[in-house]
Amino acid sequence: MKYLVTMFLLSVCQLGLAETPMLTADESIPIPKVAFDAKGDLVAGTAADTAAKLTAGADDTILMADSGQSTGLKWVAAGTPSTQAFGDSAVVGTADTFTRGDHKHAMPADPVTAHAAASDPHTGYVLESLLDAKGDLISASADNTPAILTVGTNGKVLSADSAETTGLKWVDVGDVPSGDIVQIGSGEGSIRVPGLKGLGNRTGVGSSAGSVSTEYSSGSSGLTWSPTSPTTEDIDSTYPDHLYLAWGATGSAESLGLKAFAPGAATAFDVRILVSSVVKASDGNSAGIGLIVTSSGDTSRLLVQVNPQARAGATVTAFTYAAGAYTQRGSTHTEIGFSPAYLRLSRDGSNNCQMWWSPNGRMWVSISTLSFTFTPASIGYRLSESGTTTLQAAVDFLRSDV
Question: What is the domain range of residue 31?
Answer without folding.
Answer: 2-72
